[in-house]
Amino acid sequence: MKQLRQIKSALGSRAGIITTVSALVLLAFFTAVPVAVKHATLSWLKNNGMDEARIDNVDVNLFAGTLAVDGVHLHAENGTTNALQHFSVNLAMTDLARKRVRIESLRIEGLDLSARLVEALSIGGFTLPSESPATEPRITPDESDKKPWHIGIDSLTVRDTALAFAVPKLDLALALDDLSLTHLHSWNPAQEARLEVKGSLNKSPLLISLDLAPFAADTSVQGGIQLTDFALAPFTKVAEPHVTDLDGKLTIDTRIAFTRALESGTTLSQTGTLSLTDLSGRLTDPGVDLKALDLTWLGDVWVALDPAEKMTDLRTLGSLANGRLDAAYPAMGLRLRHEGVVWDGELSHTPSQKDGLAARGNLSVKQALASDSDTDVKIASLSHFFAYDIKAKGLNTIRVPHISLKGISALPPLSSIGSVDITAMALNNLSHLRADTLIVDDVATTLVRDPAGRLTFFNTINSLTAFHGNESAPSSTDTTAPGGAPPAPLAVKINTFRISGDDFLHLTDRSVTPVFEKEVSLKRLELLDIDTTAPDRDLPLTLEAELDTYETFSVTGTVRPLAPDVTAHLKARVANINLSCLSPYCSQALGYLIKTGSFTADSTLDINAGVLDINNQLTLRNLRLVPDDEETVDQVMKNLTMPLDYALSILEDNNGTISLSIPVHGDIHDPDINLNSIIQIATAKAITTASVSYLSFLLQPYGALLMVAEKAGEMITEIHLDPVGYELGATEPDPAGLEYLKVVAGLMKKKEFLNLTVFANAVPEDLSSEPEAAEETPTEASGELPAPEDKTLYMDLARQRASTIRHILAKEGIAPGRIHVSRPNFIVSKQQKPEAVLTL
After folding, report:
1. Nearest to 822 by CA among 808, 804, 803
2. Three-state SS for 18?
3. Best exposed site among 193, 351, 367, 449 by fewest CB in 10 Å?
4. What is the distance between the alpha carbons of residues 426 and 253, in angstroms, rounded to a whole number?
5. Over the stretch 71-93, which tens digit does the pLDDT of each residue have?
6. SS3 category, 467
7. How many CA atoms are closer than 13 Å to the CA of 155, on its beta-carbon side?
């Protein structure tokens, strides 16, 4: 028994020793492992490009599956500095038995890491070897049946971390204030992992919240992303050479959903806001200088791709707003600006369908302006544009119930339009455009002629860079379609076209003295049934305008504005037009100033393929002319054959009214005739004919004849009245002559500016006895009689006849000074009767 106890005692002591030794060995091992890991790591770091490497602490627990590293500081040979304040990982050791690498927690704090890609990828100063072509490992039948290893992480936390990425032409800095990833396990593919990120990208605030299922049969990612005021300037080198001097900011506030299935393909959806603000740069082709651009998308986008990554469907619903634009096109001499272009609606595109593009929504434009790129002179502007409920099916059918434009101007103050409204507009196949109504309201045009007679807006046009004929500007003359055929013209149909404007035209003419100013108010201009495919159709036209409160202008009828030759059938009326303000133009055209006067005109215009057949009925009231330009007066005389004021005075009735009928005929295509000459000749002929006709009317049943003769190198106009008859040998007119002289006296009383000249004669029969019956001699057969040897008695008789007429007219109240007795005349001829010729 004693020996047995000794043996047991010895064995117990030996076991204790072994246990103690084993414990000491294990303790030494676990104590040495962190030190060994630390020194091995430092050695490896220095052997792989680190000038300096320091690790403050390493803690390894193989039983617990934990590793912690603190205070890592690295300085690479290339000057890169990296640091890590804390790194810890906790591995679930028991899961290794189930072929799972499960990280219960992974924590990184204070990491400062840089990566650069030039020819090879360098991370933290370590240059990674280039990848060799991958070769698929050979899998034996036994290996393929084995259970695969899985990997997962319960919790990943990254805090106070800065990551710098440098690739050619681009540097990015990612700061992670807080990043967490939870429940990412390959052995549970249906479970969604959660990724939360709070930090900044290039100092722009960044928030990410995503639910991930990367190991599922249908890979999915969904969640929200926020990136605020992300600067685009760092991408300048990347955008070159297509875009230079890139600048601006990007903001993202959206939710995304991404799903990828091997059989059905990929779907991507986005809901939220994407915006670009203060975007600027220069597009080298087509040479656009983008000074400022704001672009915002607010809505939903859904995209579907087939397994071959080809798009099968695209749908959008929301608002795309171009809040601001300022862009210059130097080659075209234009600068374009606006304060808002907004599309609000839906759009879909199915590439597999012929008309797979469809859209419906509203389009608006606010405060658009086109100006000269060099001088910034305003060319055109638009206050507001709105297209309501646009419906489009491909490019074949586009419908817009209502289009409204407000505040349009061109080369201000040349022209402005208050509003334009288009209803029931439809565009088919980009070739046929139709609309129910096109209404243009509040049209105002300002025309100014400078002292040289040139319209001032031409000076503005000539100052514009866009009109300098810049050879670098794209040519607009080449409109040849593919295949060599010119494109078909756009067919346009408009049921009703109407224009109105209270201040339709304001005209200022500084080329005349005094300066001429006139305003025209267009009450209505309406054209119906416009159809460019039927140019020979007569279109009903109505025009109503006012030149002043009581000055009106109206036109009704039909026109063919689209026909190759001008064709129209119109009735026009101009009423109560004050002529005194037109005095400067009358002086230029006729040589006379208009002291007073007004006119009304009724016209019938028939124009057939450029051939004029126009009849004008003019009524002038209280017209008073004053000669102003002798040279022009002489030129008008050649057409009128009498002074204009003289002719018009003849035409005036007792009320100071003149009525004229002026027919105008001619062909505007005749190269030897222009419209001005047609009208001038027609007017002169009308005035001359009307003057003589009016005198004949006043003298009826007697007549008057206009005679023009040249005396002393000057053209003299005379109006020959019917002669006064006498009995043979009598000094007083016969009874018919006496009655006629009363009519002449009445005419001279009405027209006090008229003077009368009396040419009296005598014939041989006045003083001879009864004619003898004798045979005709050859002289008598010719109608000539032998002249008496003494003509004195005959000349006295003729003189007495002229004086008697003067005395008779004086008794009728005609001033003797207005009656001129011409040298008496004696005529030896059987064909002459005793008479007195009267001329005015």
Report:
1. 803
2. helix
3. 351
4. 38
5. 888 887 777 788 889 999 998 88
6. helix
7. 8
Query: Which residue(s) pair with 243 in the sheet?
Result: 283
Contact 62, 33 (CB under 8 A): yes
CA dihedral 259, 261, 267, 268 (to 10 degrees): 30
- What average pLDDT does this structure show over 303-316? 91
Give the separation between CA 834 and CA 765, rounded to whole angstroms.
Answer: 9
pLDDT for 721:
79
pLDDT digits (tens, 9 = 90+) for 254-296: 999 999 988 888 999 999 999 999 999 999 887 899 999 999 9
Under 8 Å between Cβ of 60 and 38: no
Q: Can you tell me the distance from the alpha carbon of 295 to that of 337, in angstroms, rounded to the nearest whole number?
A: 14
CA 663, chain centre distance (Å): 42
Q: What is the pLDDT of residue 528?
A: 93
With both helix axes pointing from N to C terminus, report the angle between 583-590 and 630-640 in degrees, rounded to the nearest 10: 70
Q: Which residues touch 537 (CB under 8 Å, ≥6 apart)?
A: 529, 531, 560
Strand partners, 318: 299, 345
Q: What is the DSSP string of 579-590?
A: -GGGHHHHHHHH
Q: What is the pLDDT of residues 688-700, one digit of tens each?
A: 555 555 555 455 4
- How far apart (Å, rounded) are the C-alpha atoms in residues 431 and 438? 19
The stretch 822-831 carries a mean pLDDT of 70
Instruction: Give the rounded distance of the alpha carbon of 24 from its chain centre.
Output: 93
User: φ and ψ at 40, to 5 degrees?
Assistant: -65, -40
Contact in structure between 182 and 155 (CB atoms under 8 Å): yes
Burial class (CB in 10 A: 0-12, 13-18, 19+), 791: middle
- Tokens at residue 366, please? 């606010």
User: Sign of the CA dihedral 124, 127, 130, 131?
Assistant: negative
Dist CA 366 CA 492 (whole Å): 27
What is the average pLDDT across 125-137? 60
C-alpha to C-alpha distance for 316 and 300, rounded to whole angstroms? 6
Q: How far is Cα 237 from Cα 171, in angstroms, rounded to an integer?
A: 10
The answer to whether residues 591 and 632 touch, using CB atoms and an 8 Å cutoff, is yes
| Alpha carbons 305 and 350: distance in angstroms, whole number | 11
